[in-house]
Design brief:
Length: 255
């Protein structure tokens, strides 16, 4: 039995439409504190209608299954209650949720940007985009597949967990990741620029460009197909020992 939810916007903080981008290496505690301070200030000014929306959100999260979209962005919710599956989009941008708990599947996009999320809980599948920019996630744990793009830039990520496929692009720019774990497929582009990864592990397919500028990757491992490979003079890739089919895909970026 499905629970059709009205796709209301659950917004408390209206004024900050262009949040600043913080570097998680320098100010994670300050980011959390600033988000909490904004919630407290806005909540003190909240009218009865907004408080009713918050109460409605808490009621919704008593359910395990939601058929449709939910937008809880900017609400001071701290957990997802009993939620295990949502067929549409789930927006948790700038919330106080730290753990996704029992949630296993999001059929659409999952927006966690600038939230305090540090643990993906039981999450296994996201059908659309997964935006983790500016979160505190270090391990993707049981997540196996993302149907859109996956942005891990500006996170303290160190482990891709069980991840096997990203149908869109995967951004690992300037992260602390050291290997790709079980990853086999990236349907879009893969950005490994300024990472400490030395090999591609089980990766077999990249549908777009593979960015190895400023990277320590020395060989392409099990890779079978890629659209193009971007390197610069700081890349460690041993181009001379690549198969001819890959040498033809090399693009030098001299900037």
């Amino acid at each position: 039995m499905s629970n059709n939810i009205n796709n209301e916007d659950f917004h408390v903080l209206e004024e900050d439409n262009n949040p600043k981008r913080y570097n998680v290496l320098f100010v994670p505690r300050r980011v959390k504190r600033r988000i909490r301070d904004r919630f407290e200030e806005a909540w003190s000014r909240a009218d009865e209608r907004i408080r009713d929306r918050f109460d409605k959100a808490k009621t919704i999260l008593q359910q395990e299954y939601i058929d449709g979209d939910l937008d809880f962005s900017d609400l001071p919710i701290t957990d997802l209650g009993n939620l295990k599956l949502i067929t549409g989009n789930l927006n948790l941008r700038e919330t106080l949720v730290t753990d996704l708990g029992s949630l296993k599947l999001v059929g659409g996009n999952l927006n966690l940007c600038y939230s305090t999320v540090a643990d993906l809980g039981s999450l296994e599948y996201v059908g659309g985009n997964l935006d983790l920019f500016g979160t505190f996630v270090t391990n993707l744990k049981s997540l196996k597949s993302v149907g859109g793009f996956l942005d891990l830039c500006n996170t303290p990520i160190t482990d891709l967990g069980s991840l096997k496929s990203v149908d869109g692009s995967l951004n690992l720019l300037d992260t602390s990741i050291t290997d790709l774990g079980f990853l086999e497929l990236v349907g879009g582009s893969l950005n490994l620029s300024s990472t400490c990864i030395t090999g591609l592990g089980s990766l077999k397919f990249v549908g777009g460009s593979l960015n190895l500028c400023y990277s320590t990757v020395t060989d392409l491992g099990s890779l079978e197909s890629v659209y193009k490979i971007i390197i610069n003079k700081f890349s460690k890739l041993d181009v001379g020992n690549l198969p001819r089919k890959f040498r033809k895909k090399i693009v030098n970026n001299y900037l």
